[in-house]
Amino acid sequence: MCGIAGFFTQGNTELQLKEATDTLVHRGPDSGGYFFEDCGIGLGHRRLSIIDLSEGANQPMDSANGRYVMIYNGEVYNFEELRAKLPGHAWKTHGDSEVVLELFAHYGAESFGWLNGMYAVGIFDKQTQKLTLARDPVGIKPLYYYYDGKSFAFSSELKSIKQLYPNLPVNREAIAYFLHLAYIPVPLTIYKDVYKFPSGHYVEVSVANGKPELSDITAFWNVKQHIKPGTITDEAQAKGQLKDILFGAVKRQLISDVPSGTFLSGGIDSSCVTAIASKVSDTKIKTFSIAVVDGKVNEAPYAAAIAKYLGTEHYELPIHQKDILDMVPDLLSVYDEPFGDTSAFPTMLVSKLARQHVTVALSGDGGDEQFYGYGTYTWAQRLGNPMLRALRRPLYAASRLAPDYYKKAGRMLGYEKSGLLKSHIYGQDYFHSHELKQLLTFNGYSFDALNQDMDAARPLTVREQQSFWDMAYYLQDDLLVKVDRASMKYSLETRVPLLDLEVLQFSLNLHESLKEKNGERKYLLKQVLYDLVPASYFDRPKWGFGIALDKALREGLRPLVEQYLTKAVIEKHGLVHAGPALALKDRFYNKGENSSYFRLWLLTVLHWWMEENVK
Q1: What digits encode the pLDDT tens for the residues 452-504?
Q2: Which DSSP letter does residue 479 get?
Q3: pTM, entire model
Q4: Crossing angle of helices 386-399/376-383, nearest 10°?
Q5: How far apart are CA 214 and CA 538, in angstroms?
Q6: E-strand spans in 77-225?
Q7: Alpha helix locations (H) across 56-166?
Q8: Contacts of 442 (CB under 8 A, 6+ apart)
């Protein structure tokens, strides 16, 4: 795993390239390299050596014909079979980077559609003076770009772009999305003229009359094109197919020239990945979990029991809530923009533990979105019921007068209009669209495009629409961002076998009756797992991997709230009206409205970020 940064702007210097690239040293501590030409192209790379540890695999890497130079962050798992597309080629390395470059040199952007893996790549054509950027189909690896019509730059993280352009103005539209979702979705970032590059796309950049010009950003892979007219309904056939696909995905993603292991929370997804890894690996698998000894729920004993059953080399880190809160000051520097997912903190801790023993860790991300692991899919079906729709306004009004315990469920009924249901269902704990109209001091944003239905080769149910929405936004811009930054803070590469393209293409066309059956979520995935680990090990409720945020806000995090959510700070930045923001704070601390704790956290993070970044 690595970090990439670069620009295609006349007037930038080689020193600026090095300074921007070196903000990413945590992503690649093993080596750094730079390519610079007077035409304004600069390509920088920081390397974390995973496959082919030799200096010959360092980057920037030149193609065999000398025409192309590449910087690349990621892993492509089918690179060995892709070598067959270049028979007779004299390979200089045994890794995937050279394969990606030489395929592009021979076939151009068409080759991106053949890659099964996670990556962000920049390739410069010295002959045509054209730069091509591309990002993997799921958005596992990050890629940002800056473009204002005069300058163009890109990077694995926002901090490199901020190094090049330190006075970037804040994008207010992104703030509305953050308060609505607890993260900022593609293509927006917290800065104007800076964008998240869309997954499964590529773009070409050239310079004309001294200014960079971008081609249309073009898709080479998308979910829609892989949805078939029919679905897989035969359970026995589907189970056998899924088992074979999962075993192949995990085996591919264990390929490494450095030590590897798995995150093991004791839940379905991480246990499935770990169980398969223990079967296909030539060496004993190392597993990692944390034990929150004073938390609301401690799943470490379950993880330890599964590790013992599978015979892994298990490492467990006992921590207290205070240890988690000690990570809070790192939030802004790690994520670069407002980010509300508090499971980032335990993810940092388990990544730190894993990096003491391995350089690569496999995680279970992606299972919930593909196999209906969330209760939100049940809510999507409920809210599509005409009878509930007819009664939802009086029910919502009644819930507002009910005890605090019922208010969360009641809030689910309080959507502004049916066209905004997807983000409303997801963001039940956050600020709803009608609340933001009262809270924000500005307008000019809309959640309509965010909530559009996906057209496909077959009619999609409301649960399918909701799960595909989660893949496009929540998975890409929250969960994968969370794990990437938390792990790369400690120079740990994290891989996600459940997001292998073969797994994804299978799940897109699995009938939903095999995703949830008789009220059992992730049904088919569990059937594969239970052949490897007895079902009795999982006979317990599902818990999220986070912190007791309501308790933390009343205790360890309260000084943060008192420092950044004040009338003076709120009015200084002028993003929200002080009255409703401070009223929410008062209801939480003084009137026992516990259901408002996550909205309080989002307002605190926003103003904390503004105080640190906007002087």
Answers
A1: 999 999 999 999 999 999 999 999 999 999 999 999 999 999 999 999 999 99
A2: I
A3: 0.95
A4: 110
A5: 51
A6: 117-125, 130-135, 144-147, 152-155, 194-196, 201-208, 211-214, 218-219
A7: 79-82, 97-107, 158-164
A8: 172, 575
